[in-house]
């Protein structure tokens, strides 16, 4: 999970650097939740792949 979270958070920060208008407290909270959900989903998908679910 840590790898995927760090990877997604890095993409989040790169996008925030490109578009400074998106940087706000509300936007930060929203994108943090997105990073958390996406990293959990990627972790579950990787675990399923590793354990032969698909």
TrEMBL record:
SUPFAM superfamilies: Fumarate reductase respiratory complex transmembrane subunits. It comes from the Bacteria. GO terms for cellular component: membrane. The keyword Heme applies. Its cofactor is heme. The chain crosses the membrane at residues 32-51. InterPro entries: SQR/QFR_C/D, SuccDH_FuR_B_TM-su. Keywords: Heme, Iron, Membrane, Metal-binding, Transmembrane, Transmembrane helix. GO terms for molecular function: metal ion binding. Pfam families: Sdh_cyt (PF01127). Membrane-anchoring subunit of succinate dehydrogenase (SDH). This is Succinate dehydrogenase, cytochrome b556 subunit.
């Amino acid at each position: 999970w840590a790898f995927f979270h760090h990877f997604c958070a890095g993409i989040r920060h790169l996008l925030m650097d490109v578009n400074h208008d998106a940087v706000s407290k509300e936007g930060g909270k929203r994108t943090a939740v997105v990073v958390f959900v996406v990293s959990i989903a990627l972790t579950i998908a990787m675990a399923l792949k590793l354990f032969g679910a698909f």
